[in-house]
Amino acid sequence: MSLETALKNCFTGRQENRFLYLIPPGFPAFEGHFPGNPLLPAVCQTGLCADALSRQAGKPLEISAVARAKFMRPVLPGAQVQITLTTRPDGKTLCELADPESGQKFSQIIVQVKERV
Q: Which residues, in sequence order, are bridge partners of residue 85?
């Protein structure tokens, strides 16, 4: 199974511009990042953003640039992640990843997207 497919399989639901994901303890990226102290890699968090953006647009999109990324807390095995998407005036999108229950943010990633060809 590809990493992209594994990320898509984490999707659990949508509420307007909020997308919910459950990162299972057996998620493949935890095996190498880091053994004995697993956390979800930044590339996977960015991949979740791409999945949420594609679901919002109703068509496949890919991230063409990351303008800024700030990681505040690690995403651990079994975490629920809510991604809130906010389109900015410059055309980029702010993706905020947070715990849906506590509201504590995992990360903020500002991205530019393009249609996947």
A: 95
The token pair that represents 7 in the structure block: 């990320």
Q: Quick count: other Cβ atoms within 10 Å of Cβ 45?
A: 22
Compute the distance between CA of residue 2 and CA of residue 6 in angstroms, rounded to an integer: 6
> Residue 105 burial (CB < 10 Å; 0-12/13-18/19+)?
middle
In this structure, the number of other CB atoms found within 10 A of the CB of residue 70 comes to 10
Report whether the peptide linkage leading into residue 34 is cis, meaning its omega lies within 30 degrees of zero: yes
Global pTM exceeds 0.90: yes
Render pLDDT for 11-52 as a digit per residue (tens, 0 to 9): 999 998 999 999 999 999 998 888 889 999 999 999 999 999
Q: What is the pLDDT of residues 68-78, one digit of tens each?
A: 999 999 999 99
> Distance between terminal CA atoms of the chain?
21
